[in-house]
Amino acid sequence: MEExxxxxxxxxxxxxxxxxxxxxxxxxxxxNDIIKTIRSYAIILLLHLIKQQAENRTTxxxxxxxxNSVREIQRENKxxxxxxFYLTPEELVETLQxxxxxxxxxxxxxxxxxxxxxxxxxxxxxREKIINSALNLIKPQ
Length: 141
Known about the structure:
By secondary structure, the chain is an all-alpha fold. It has helices at 2-12, 16-55, 60-77, 89-110, 118-124, 127-138.
C-alpha cells in the first residue's frame, strides 16, 4: 500500500521516471508472490509424486491432490489479460527443482509411516523422473 501512495505522489509531481521505478518494484513484488504460490503448489505436487514412486502405489487422495495442484499451478502461471505465462518453461523447471527438497522433507513424514530420512528417501526415488513427470502434468494441453 505504501508503494501505491508513493506512486500517486510521484505522478502528481510529474516525476515519471521515479514513478516507473515504483511500477517496476510493484511488478516484481507481484511476480514474486505468484512464484511463491506456484512453489507452494509444486511442493504438494512433488510430494505426492515422490510418495507414488517410493511406495509404488497411489491413492485416490494422492491423485486428487496431484490434479488440484496441477490446476492451481496452471491457473497461477497464466497471464489473464496479457496472455502467455509468468514463468518460462526454464523458470518452471527451476521452481520445481527448488521445491523438490521441501517435498522430500515432507515425504519423509509420510512414506512408509516416516521410516526414511531425507537422504535415504532420495536414494529410493528418481529426482529427474519426478520433476519431468511434474512438468509434463503442468504443461498446457
